[in-house]
Amino acid sequence: MATLLQPEKVLYLVRGEKKIRVPLSQLYFCRYCSELRSLECVSHEVDSHFCPSCLENMPSAEAKLKKNRCANCFDCPCCMHTLSTRATNIPAPLPDDPTKTTMKKAYYLACGFCRWTSRDVGMADKSVASGGWQEPENPHTQRINKLIEYYQQLAQREKLERDRKKLARRRPFMPQAFSEKYGLGTRLQRQRSGAPISALYGLSLKEGEDQKEITIEPAQALDEVEPLPEDYYTRPVNLPEVTTLRQRLLQPDFQPAGASQLHPRHKHLLMKRSLRCRKCEHNLSKPEFNPTSIKFKIQLVATKSKFGVNINTAPKATTHSFPRQTLFTLSGLTITVLQCVLVPSKELVLSGKDAAAEYDELAEPQGFQDDPDVVAFRKSNKIGFFIKVVPQREEGDVTVAFKLRHDFRNLAAPIRPTEEGEATSEAIWLTHHVELSLGPLAT
Amino acid sequence: MPLFEGLGSGGEKTAVVVDLGAAYTKCGFAGETGPRFIIPSEIKRAGSPEAVRVVQYNINTEELYSILKEFVHLLYFRHLLVNPRDRRVVIVESVLCPSHFRETLSRVFFKHFEVPSVLFAPSHLMSVMTLGIQSALVMDCGYTETLIYEGVPILSAWEALPMGGKAIHRLLWLMYCLVFNSLLVFVTDSIPEDVVEDIKVRTCFVSDLQRGMKIQEARFNLDGSAERPAPPPDVEYPLDGQKILHVKGAIRDSVAEMLFEQDNEEKSIATLLLDTLVKCPIDTRKVLSENLVIIGGTSMLPGFLHRLLSEIRSLVEKPKYRDALATKSFRIHSPPAKPNCTAWLGGAIFGALQDILGSRSVSRDYYSETGRIPDWCCLSTPLPDSVYEAGKMPPPLMKRAFSTEK
After folding, report:
1. For an interface test with A, which of B134, B373, B386, B387 has the most A Cβ atoms less than 10 Å from its Cβ?
2. pTM of the entire structure?
3. CB spacing of B81 vs A198 below 8 angstroms
4. Which among A335, A326, A338 has a CA at the least distance from the CA of A376?
5. Which of A151, A200, A249 has the CB atom closest to B38's CB atom?
6. ipTM score of the complex?
7. CA A371 to CA A357: how far, in whole Å?
């Protein structure tokens, strides 16, 4: 089978926003629209979160609170490996009797890869194995929150103004004096979206508001900036002590320059993705909740729909103008008529053109008079047929493209309740554009 | 009167705030104090060994669309872990971003990810929001360019210089090639850019004014009479675990001088600031010069701010600026975030204002009706109402005073 290890040999054309050619293994089949879908024409959604090291599922509400970070696992700030908790015994005085000492367990974090430990940064050992480690807080949090509150107040005012204008506009029978009082004038345009951000600053706190006003001190500019220390020019640089850019950017709030200030961070979660057809909004792929399970709740992949073309044997090196026989295997649900459309750019001698051989996949392979020139073999629901290919050019790769048309019985689709109450599904005809690459021409 | 609800306690979900920079992208949620992730703005493709940069302005739309799609996919499903359909998006971007990039980006967001609305926020304006002041002069020293901008209410003068981290990298790389050639060291493969960036971050710094001046003189002096100040000690930088790169001390401090050297047009980063001040209306100059804000990753080099201030102060004495600028006092703000995240923080603060975020964003319906996003340099978008009423200021002059000179 040519396509297991080289999936790019048989490509299907998917008409989404633009035409893309993808092997069947990367396609999904929406059985409600009865069309092939590729990853580009489905919408991806986040399904569930889990930690990659402890494989614990985290509900989305909790993930949002914890900022998509696991509560138990840490990342080494130097090499981003997962940290492990190690325990030592340290002598500690008994609470009752300070003179006697007993061994107590103390825990610290250590990296198995780069040998970094939490003691390098000055973090004290904790007495509990998990839950004792805290990430440092951003010192500017207070100021930023105050700024947000202040601006939210301004935003509220702007919204009020807008609403008031809207209400005023809805009364066209307003007397002239009234409109003048509000100062609306004749230039009543709807507020355009996407406007440049400017007027927020114009909204100073208006007088007459009896709500509590949140004022904010504007930031003070500094006259002098600290210069580099004198010994900077002469001090030798200890390169392992200086953090690399990557290590700094892992902690955007602090970005420490010295390695002695690199604190470990909680491990970032991964997510499982579910796919949804854009047209009919049905799920095409929905994974299981359990992070350790690789199964799917819904898995409408194209290979399961059991139609496909594989190249069975392709003879090597066809020369120009010499028709050669290529054996194709076709497997499908129910193929009634195979019609081949001659692709005008290539001159194909398709001997299977009139092969209107009727066959049903469930029936025994008897009674089928197959033209031995057309059909090579038949096995359950597979059939092998020949196509003669005449390459048009002297060199290059040979590509055969044809349209494969077959009928498809949608056994699993939701049955519309008919009056008879019978569960018959109709066969619909599907057409796929298939491209097969047979390899380079040998001279 | 709607009661003031806390963030996330019902109502809309928090918006996603993304700052797409040329070198690094900061992404996170509105209302938070810092971005969740700062990741390099590149994607790895199966074909090529090198990563592909996301923010490229010269490639054709299809290619850009697929690169942006992959990148935004990574942002949502590996870093932010949320559904794109649920949350509004605030994109903090530079004003000089070409319209075609902005339109491709909004097409990715609207058509492929189906976000409810998108807001493009200028990065300089957002940085001023983190301070609580009304106007400031913001300088963004980033990767590809250094850009100056004025805060609200009037955006009139801007200046830019294509000199930033990328230029430093290139200079460092060139210096290395020279050093290697002169020492006849055989280098089998060239140094990749992230190694150069690492060398820059860890070993380079900006010297103060006097020292910097001496280094510049020594470099340009042809007869060798100027003395170069003693270089800092060398650093041994391990490469690949096998080779060791000797970072000469002379390279460490002279690389950053490039930002402050005045080229043929006598432009350097410091002159950018002063030129912008000259362009501004006279009554605003004092306010602006006392409210300087410096953002951008390149400004995090040790010694940068101090050097910049001293350069400005010394340049103000020069005849070119002495008559033009009456103000002599310069003050720098320190925003409540690191300089590379300040613009992001402003975007996050703005994104937390749920009352007006909706009205100021481009919604998906508007986009599907008109097929394009309003741009500040596009005259076909009518100005909003609020500009005329809420403030008592004249409408922004940006459409007329758009200066075409850099």
Report:
1. B386
2. 0.80
3. no
4. A326
5. A249
6. 0.79
7. 9
